[in-house]
Design goal:
The chain is of the alpha/beta class. The protein is about 35% helix and about 25% strand. It is built from eight helices and eight strands, in the order αβαβαβαβαβαβαβαβ.
Amino acid sequence: MSRGKLKRFAEVWERDNVLEPGKEIYEKIKGQWHEHYFKNDKPITIELACGRGEYSVGLARMFPDQNFIGIDIKGDRIWKGSGIAIDENLDNVAFLRTIIQLLEKFFAPEEVSEIWITFPDPRPKDRDEKRRLTHDKFLDIYKNVISKDGWVRLKTDNTGLFEYSLEVVKNRKDIKNLAYTFNLYGSEFETECHGIKTRYEKKHTALGADIKYLKFQFN
């Protein structure tokens, strides 16, 4: 491991806005985010596979009356967003190091108000289908932690993943209010994304890619 990564891991360990294995609060936070971390009862939005946390930080800036949690397994990625949050005194955003498969270990039923999936790995190979964050097994997890009428939102530049996600959602009987577009910018849904763009989105839009977006709720 490079010295740079080791330094970032050490810095992340010292940050109170990052919950990761080895920290006492990490094992006790399920169902306790409002009481033991945010110290308020404001709604919680989570960003899955958040990378550098552009959406978590961006939303926290725009909505100080809400709470946000960026979730990723990579500590060196979280290092960027958590550092920005500290520099800007954003106390309404946290970062959680875990794999998405373990989401129910950290959130009680209906503890989450909204879920963002922003530019996830498309996992294009057939053998990786179950690792796509819009596979049925993941949707079942989301359903168990999100509040009634909470929105699940997906942004991606990958047409294959988007079409796959639409097919999965349309085939489920527990989905309502599905809405989507294959070209976000200029559509009626553009304002819902608040003008926040991840570095991946900036890269792909510069190359001429259309950004796809969908949202839905569970029955």
